[in-house]
Amino acid sequence: MPLPLFALMLCVFSVGTAESVIAGILPQIAGDLGVSVPAVGLLVSGYALTVVVGGPFVTLLTGRIPRKTLVVGLIGVFVLGNLIAAVADDYSMLLLGRVVSALAHCTMFAVCIVIANGLVGAGRQGSAVARVALGLNLATVAGVPIGTVLGQEFGWRSTFWAVLLMSVVSALLVVLFVPAVPGPSSAGAIGELAVLRDRRVRLAIMMTVFASAGAFAAYTFIAPLLTEVGGFGPVALTVLLFVFGGGSIVGNLVGGRLVDRALLPALVSTVAALTLSLLFLAVAASVRPLAALAVLLFGASYFSIIPALQARIMTAAGARAPTLALAVNISAFNIGIGGGAWLGGRVIDAGLGYRVVVLVGAAVVVVSVFIAIRELMAARNRDTSPVARKTELV
């Protein structure tokens, strides 16, 4: 991987690890600060809420800043948040640190994707997005487990110090290897918000919400599905979660390659594959070898949609406000994740079982499939120039 893309990927790895690692050190934080585990759980939802609500506003406010400068500045904010968390002596201070960190999350991810897109030649944007987004996969597969072990062995503060150190390293790599990229010529906040009036941008955001909601309705309850329906033990469950993570890495990279070949067909095929993988998981959950294969395919298909959706957003937004459109789309991912987890919980509360949760998730993703097919057909029927047609179809 070229060093500029590696530096950007490392930034995403840092924020991805920080977002999720709290789940692994909840008991240590609760015991040390003298608060309940559910209260510590609010550190996760508070972070996500800040990303959803604050992220697009931060993007609007920083739209005129040159992008390399902006990434370094956002890492500085992220480092500050983790520093506050690492030295926090009470729950309120720790929550403040999480909120400060989350303010940088959305815009940093979006700007890293925009920079990566500009560093590669035409026809390679999908792979560039996939390489940067690989940081999220590695955060799930490596960052969170390592952060959890650090917290268990050396105290939960060591986890935040480790994330802080990794963030500093990523900032240094950005300074050394990422070329200067000017900020977009902006017509101000109102002018940038106009990008959200574009039908294609709005539909892409809708696809993101429904695809992530369907996936996380199933993923939130994948552990009890595999243990209670599949009969897997704790060790096997851990292995299967690593299988999911491995599939996510493969799917992310394959999705990027598919986008390079043909954007809208790739979008249709990836969301359709996610639907089919969920249906397969629901049917095969009680047959262990097939369940393991289904978990692998689920991880691969879900993460294959990320390059496709982000590339669609950038294509639809064009040069007007791609960073804002991406920031809103990242918020949409978080909305979908939260909504999917809530929906899955309601299905469980209704006594319908874990297989039905997965089937409901597949039904939700179907909405994204229909939108993607509609967009593909509209692009094929649209009277565009050969260049514009190639951008969307080839």
Automatic annotation (TrEMBL):
It comes from the Bacteria. Keywords: Cell membrane, Membrane, Transmembrane, Transmembrane helix. CDD domains: MFS_NepI_like (cd17324). Residues 4-380 form the Major facilitator superfamily (MFS) profile domain. Its main location: membrane. The keyword Nucleotidyltransferase does not apply. The chain crosses the membrane at residues 42-62, 69-88, 94-116, 128-148, 160-182, 203-226, 232-255, 262-284, 290-309, 321-342, 354-373. InterPro entries: MFS (IPR011701), MFS_dom (IPR020846), MFS_Efflux_Transporters (IPR050189), MFS_trans_sf (IPR036259). The keyword Transmembrane helix applies. Pfam families: MFS_1. It is found in: Cell membrane. Signal peptide: none annotated. It is a multi-pass membrane protein. This is MFS transporter.
